[in-house]
């Protein structure tokens, strides 16, 4: 009798006494863990047939399916499908929030990846590091092993996370695999990749997204949608000149002009959001942003500067220099939907220094008029 036959006979004899096949040792391992890990194929089926719960996890949170996935090359390949047939939870996460597919990817078990993928293992689940299996696969040169099993939701989830991480190469590869007819995808907040990239403050990331979106098959103006959330330019206000330049230098000229004019979900053009950063404001004006623009509430740039902690002196001087004194005077006299001029907005907001400054500007303009 061979060693395998002897082992099988002994285990069967023990199983006839109906032992507790779900008993766990101090590390939480069941008999199934012990026979799967070394690949005792002749013992796996008898233990399962005796009623061993294939879903029990050890103290690391790993089930026998986790072990079979990460050890696939060193154990008989039939064990993995056996566990799946026995209703092992395919997307169960261990203490590191890694699924069997995560572990198969980390261990470079390419055949296990295919088996799990064909059985519907989700690719969009995040581990403790905030990574999907596709993000894990890319630096390991395993991205191509998902070629026939890519899931749209996983591509989107991986793209958003790669953008947040500034993983430029990963961004490009993921976008290549995405359905261009349904581009751009949206995250749970309704943001597109452009918005997430702009918000992340990573110039290389937003530049890469825009560059790929300019390729055939993508809509080059998709950065303009949707219109129910902040625009890419306004949400980039958390960043600085570098992030704005990355956007404006990579979009097509016709898209650039539309971005400059586009109002956000509260009716504010992008220029309003950049009053607090003079270099960016000036850059947008140089690109053609209209300083005569008004928001949905009827506020012009001077209203906004008078109400918030922006430098009204800077805005006033900018308008005077570029648009001229007549336009400046017109804008100082314009009323918003509440019927208030910029000076009245400053007065209502109890900003005496701004009121004093605007009064001085008006007196100067009146004096110039009287001389004429």
Could you characterize what this model shows?
With 372 residues, this protein is mainly α. The protein has three domains: 1-146, Ankyrin repeat-containing domain (Serine Threonine Protein Phosphatase 5, Tetratricopeptide repeat, Alpha Horseshoe); 151-265, Ankyrin repeat-containing domain (Serine Threonine Protein Phosphatase 5, Tetratricopeptide repeat), CATH 1.25.40; 291-372, Alpha Horseshoe (Serine Threonine Protein Phosphatase 5, Tetratricopeptide repeat), CATH 1.25.40. It contains 22 helices and no strands. The longest helix has 20 residues, at 352-371. Residues 1-11 have low confidence and may be disordered.
- Give the averaged pLDDT, no decimals: 90
CATH topology name of the largest domain: Serine Threonine Protein Phosphatase 5, Tetratricopeptide repeat
* Number of structurally distinct domains: 3
- Describe the global form: elongated
- State the CATH superfamily name of the largest domain: Ankyrin repeat-containing domain
CATH architecture of the largest domain: Alpha Horseshoe
Gyration radius, to the nearest Å?
31 Å
Largest sheet: none
| CATH C-level name of the largest domain | Mainly Alpha
Secondary structure: number of strands = 0
* Derived structural class: mainly alpha
Beta percentage is: under 5%
| SSE pattern, N- to C-terminal | HHHHHHHHHHHHHHHHHHHHHH
The amount of helix comes to 40-55%
Distance between the termini: 118 Å
The count of helical stretches stands at 22
Low-confidence stretches: 1-11
